[in-house]
Amino acid sequence: MVMSATGEVTDHRSRGRRIILWRHGQTLWNVERRFQGTTDVELTETGIAQARRAARLLASLRPDAIISSDLRRAAHTAAELAALTGLDVTHDEALRETYAGVWQGLTHEEIIARHGEEYTAWKRGEAVRRGGGELETEVADRAAPVVLRHAEKLPEDGTLVVVSHGGTIRTTIGRLLGLDARHWESLGGLSNCCWSVLGEGARGWRLLEHNAGTLPEPVLGDDD
């Protein structure tokens, strides 16, 4: 800690790079509990309001770069932050949600009724192509390298905002933390327009915040 000439206490220690993984705002299919997957569903008015509120908070963190899924619900969420920061958004289809084949468009109840065994196996942590679509590890294979590539371009204490989807964010976090794929589900989901924060540590990436809707606070004395 160092005290400046004005008496303000500052901390000059490097905090390392940060990755903020931000889920898109609400859509009608979210409200109806329909599996969206790669279906290009638009934000609701509530979703737009969520994105604007969250963008005001995240803009105060002064991000250095924004990348986003090219699906409209994510791209429009990212646009709210871009409007406040003046940053360009890099869109990448590799950040899209999990493709889930015939599950897409079905409600939660319909999936259980029609594909109950497949659903149960997935919840047990088995490698399942839900609806004949992608494995979670395949989603991580396409999304995590994109996130890392952009993170590597950051300045020493830079911040990258990744605007994506709940499933893709969970699998990406699991991959970056080095967790076994069977345990990715234990991370839990993200609410609409909430985010998780990864920080760069001496032994790799660490999960600093999860499913946050307020600004991240430093953890002090967590080993005490």
Automatic annotation (TrEMBL):
Quote the PROSITE patterns the UniProt record gives: PG_MUTASE (PS00175)
Name used for this protein in its record: Histidine phosphatase family protein
Q: Which SMART domains does the record cross-reference, listed alphabetically?
A: PGAM
**Pfam families assigned:** His_Phos_1
Read off the InterPro entries from this record.
His_Pase_superF_clade-1 (IPR013078), His_PPase_superfam (IPR029033), PG/BPGM_mutase_AS (IPR001345), PGM_Phosphatase (IPR050275)
SUPFAM superfamilies assigned = Phosphoglycerate mutase-like (SSF53254)
